[in-house]
Fold this protein.
Amino acid sequence: MSEPLLAQLSERLARPVGESDRLRARLHLLDWLACVAGARRSDVAGRSGLLSMPLAGAALLGNVLEMDDVHRTALLHPGPVIWPAALNGAPEKLADVLDAAVRGYEAMIAIGGALDAHHYSLWHPTATAGVFGAAAAAGSHWDFSRDTMISALANAGSVAGGLWHMRHDDVMTKQWHVYHAVSTGCDAAMAAFNGITGPAALLEGPQGLFAAMTQEPGPLADNGDSWLIHTVSFKPFAACRHAHPAIDAAMELRKAGTLEAPFHVETYADALAFCDRPDPVTELDAKFSLQHAVAVVADGRRAEPADFTEAAIEALAGLRAQVTVAEDPAITARYPAHFGARVNGLELVDTRGDPERPVGEAEIVAKMHNLAEWGGLSAKDAEKAVDVALRENEAGAVEKLLEDWLT
């Protein structure tokens, strides 16, 4: 009889983290910091008293701009959850924070990858799987034994949740899900540290998470001898990830001088379920609108935060009216391993920022500068963040950066 899934995952988390893994983690740290910096002027920042606590505020802000990193097959955003958890109660050395983050990404993606389409239709995987990632990151700081890590993961997962219904209103629930995942995972790790045990078969047991939330769960995601953080995509555009393939294809047409109205988008079913919004009203609507996303590109814009404001919604109404969307079953069949789209006949199987079409350090540094400016920070502030994320050795430098930004 095979060991419980959380026991298998805990053994995997005990592996040493290598220097190449830490270098990859630094890029994701910089990417997350860029997202937090850009969200400083958002409604969430303006209306939440939690920003007086820098890590809590950062947990709320990391997802606001819809530019946080993403894992395609797990269909979740690890960065906004994992970095606040990895920094919570962090040791002195940033290397230990990076190791904790690598382990947090691993647990969150591994479990997220086992969740099925039924789960994704109702549940927000960043929240559901996020509690596991936060617990793993926090447990890494205390060098948990196998059994203690099992308990932390199991107890965090025993209260996993996060319903998608918030997509129907212009509310802050999505950001609250991230905050909840961070705080719940860290609390579960602290409880395990203090001897609170949890059920090892929490995932696959008869009344466990899979039974409650899935119809056809898969195996835990893995990346062989490597860590799953290397399979995460970066987001270059300020819109829902499901809109990125259409943005990318439209940009390729524009570069070739062949992007002309009318515009017809063919993509996978989930992209339509989340982003078929021909008449956006709010900034959130626009970020989840295929029609608006293509209109942004047709207008010569770069799909940055300014291109999804209410002013942009009004300005692009005419172009948006010339965009039609439809499902292509062949593109759906390749999803979620490939997020693709076809715009006016040009098809892209993979999207910029995916491992197959990667962005490098220079692009993420540029993203930091762009979003820092959008968030009201200076170029000097942005460069300091780049230096902290990519070259700093002391964990306190990251916390000091967030304190300066958010309090």
Summary: The chain has a mean pLDDT of 96. The longest strand covers residues 263-267.
